[in-house]
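Supplementary Text 2. Reproducibility record for the structural model of the 223-residue chain.

All settings were left at their defaults, and a single model was retained for analysis rather than an ensemble. We include the record here because the model underlies the residue-level annotations in Supplementary Table 4.
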Amino acid sequence: MTLTQQYISLYHLAEQTLLQSNISAFPVDPVRLCKKNGVLVTGYEKFSVVSGTPLQELLAISQDGFCMRYQERPVIVYNHDVSSPGRKRWTVLHELSHILLGHIDQQHLNIYERRQDVRRRMEAEADILTKCLIAPLPVALVCHVRDEKELRSLFGLSAEAAQNLYRDYRYLCARRRILALDAEPLLASCPRFFMEWRLKQLELSREQRRSILVTPTLEELKD
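Retained model, structure tokens:
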């Protein structure tokens, strides 16, 4: 990862979207965020019935989800049957990112109508915006995230996303690069969340200390 001007610009778009949608706690509820931005979210089965599109055709487009304009409205259709909640959260926010970036319009009802080179560029842009929506890394800094596991818990990520984003987090923290994101507006909106997260960390530490300090009974020491 490199801290490009594009990344900084997309981070601020994500921050603006979260603030305008009154998001002040994490993990982000992707359906709520979509509704706040005028986007309908529905599952494959329901969309199949309403639109008359066979389910297999929807799965052929994507096993996870896609966005499109349907009856003049932006719609995200996703696969409820995906087992990972983190992956479903990523899918919905990725498709919302396409919509926020203007990748679908009256001329292009879905991203798959774009040329391959254009689609590849749009997918890269949407990936960056998704990262910033699902896991604004200055929030992780204030929460004193110590490892991938905590990052995954904080933002409701899949294991793969947590691994990739923790690598980004370590890069941004090195030499204080993360300060270039100028994240004060978002951080100022989350004081209660930060307090609750810190209390959760302290409680976990207390339980860990207690488990270490507990003296085993004679019965427990027997073979």
